Amino acid sequence: MAKLSFSQNLGIDLGTANTLVYVRKQGIVLREPTVVAKNTDTGNIEAVGKDAKNMIGRTPGNIQVIRPMQAGVIADYETTSTMMKYFINQAMKKRSFLARKPSVMICVPTGITMVEERAVLDAAKQAGAKEAYSISESFAAAIGSGLPVWEPTGSMIVDIGGGTTEVAVISMGGVVTSESIRIAGDNMDETIIQFIRKHANLMIGERSAESIKLDIGTASKPETNEEIDIRGRDLLTGLPKTITISSEDIAESLSDTINEIVNAVKDTLEKTPPELAADIMERGIVLSGGGALLKNIDKVLSDATQIPVMITEDPLDSVAIGTGRSLDYIDHFRSQPNVSVRYN
Known about the structure:
Blueprint: E1 9-14, E2 18-23, E3 27-33, E4 36-39, E5 45-48, H1 50-53, E6 63-66, E7 69-70, E8 73-74, H2 77-92, E9 103-108, H3 114-126, E10 131-136, H4 137-144, E11 155-160, E12 165-171, E13 174-181, H5 185-200, E14 202-203, H6 206-216, E15 227-234, E16 240-246, H7 247-270, H8 274-283, E17 285-288, H9 297-305, E18 309-311, H10 318-326, H11 330-334, E19 341-343
Parallel strand pairs: 1-9, 9-10, 11-17, 17-18
Antiparallel strand pairs: 1-2, 2-3, 4-5, 4-6, 7-8, 10-19, 11-12, 12-13, 14-15, 15-16
Helix pairs in contact: 2-3, 4-10, 5-6, 5-7, 7-9
């Protein structure tokens, strides 16, 4: 298969929660939160990435901390373009040919519309890309997970990111059937916030909810119940308050979200041709994305489908790795109807 001869190219995992940039022959060179701090008085960007995320909940009235990507698509075009330009410049700092524009491959959700896809690619062009291509997030995750995507055998990938969960069956270099739902890591954080608000009259922020999920989050009732103290604002008194919450509480709060993901996997399996379904039964389902790190998520999916479920070696990086590696086979992606090319 023909390979891309460009000496300078980038793979960008432009995620709802985090953005990763992969440089050919170097691997992942940048990993930043997809967050921007904007001055609403002047319109200037005050901070990007980690610096901006550290400002969440701590800014004055004229500084707005925003996530320009929502559910895997652009919610704020100009801010996304500025953010991408910053990330591309940061990734290219160590390159000797900085003056040359890079060719960029960007992963997009499987269920993205043509208008949304065009917005992502145009934002990459405006950020300085020489040419921009797109690849579906699930296919990128499969490549990054080392699945035999080019062979005539069925592989199933479930990528649980920040904004979307992508489920796909892949064979012979293409997506045979897929489901994309806008329920994933960010939704888990929000359900934790709402659960604590409803049951403890306590308001907590996004960062606290994410920390709770990472520390004691679980997809099913835990064998050993863990507890942690959390701080927030008492909704009755308006004063700071500390409460104790358990992993059983978090499992209860996440149950509806987990069921949505399970149903997406089941729906995809129901649409899978029998021959490929047999391959998946034998080879198992592969989990990637930050959501794959939620405790017991693999067991819940395995119990629901009666198929072995494995977590890929680098769940947080698999999409970025696959996006970068896909540039080696650009001729294949050019011929696919779901992959677009934009030239600057």
